[in-house]
Design brief:
alpha+beta, Gyrase A, domain 2, RNA Polymerase Alpha Subunit, Chain A, domain 2, 4-stranded antiparallel β-sheet, 20% helix
Length: 255
């Protein structure tokens, strides 16, 4: 297996994995749902005069991305045996009075803080109050979507064959992704932009079938977009760790 980084930014990364099959690629993708991240799990409301019911506001708070400390422990593996302690539980609180818009920056606590400070939670009118305390714990996307660390998807690298092209420009004009450009007396297709819609193949029918393509069975392009709880590279590392852990567990069962 060979891994090649293609593009990287603060919250996105694009890399190519060669020498695997579709099942292996999908197993890697599914491993991302086993990465533990921090999210609000329980909330106790003391005052809520806002237009939103407690349940709706609790749902919004649960989906707020929180920074995940490196040394944090899942509750089921903590020495407190699930009772809740500083090793496995982060306490957060909020107290606000209107008129104002309550943002995630109003959440106060030790050990973590919201990744994005300007997410609006609720609008308080004059003399309306909101006060609650909350507990955030580690969890995985297998347990609940609020524990998702980001978006992950992959596609097979398109294997493109170009022959007998007279550079008529039909495929360039019809490509919805702008993946095709003129090159000398022929054309060039960017495999990173191409989503194999085959609009270019249809456009070139009758022109000696100049373009043909099929998905690779061994090379895949992975896309990862982080929600901010973990650094983008850390997400991939944690997914590999989760896969290794599952394989070790399978090995034990087989023995």
């Amino acid at each position: 297996m060979k891994i090649e980084k293609l593009k990287e930014s603060k919250d996105k990364i694009l890399f190519k994995v060669s020498g695997i099959n579709f099942s292996y690629a999908n197993t890697i993708r599914r491993s991302f749902s086993e990465i533990p991240v921090l999210a609000i799990d329980t909330i106790e409301f003391y005052k809520n005069d806002s237009a939103l019911y407690d349940e709706i506001l609790a749902h919004r708070l649960g989906l707020v991305p929180l920074e995940t400390p490196k040394t944090f422990t899942p509750r089921d593996k903590c020495t407190c045996k699930g009772k809740g302690c500083l090793k496995c539980t982060c306490a957060l609180k909020l107290k606000a009075k209107g008129p104002k818009t309550v943002y995630t920056s109003d959440l106060k606590g030790k050990g973590t803080s919201p990744v994005f400070k300007e997410i609006p939670l609720v609008i308080l009118e004059k003399d309306q109050e909101l006060e609650f305390s909350a507990e955030a714990i580690l969890g995985t996307a297998k347990d609940h979507a609020k524990f998702s660390c980001g978006l992950v998807w992959f596609n097979a690298v398109p294997e493109i064959t170009i022959k007998g092209c007279n550079n008529c420009g039909k495929c360039i004009n019809i490509c919805p992704k702008g993946a095709i450009k003129s090159k000398g007396n022929s054309i060039e297709i960017d495999p990173l932009k191409c989503d194999m819609c085959e609009a270019c193949v249809e456009a070139c029918k009758g022109e000696k079938d100049a373009i043909s393509m099929k998905p690779s069975e061994t090379d895949f392009i992975f896309h990862i977009e982080s929600f901010g709880q973990l650094p983008i590279k850390k997400i991939f590392q944690e997914a590999v760790k989760a896969l290794e852990s599952n394989l070790k567990e399978l090995e034990k069962v087989m023995k």
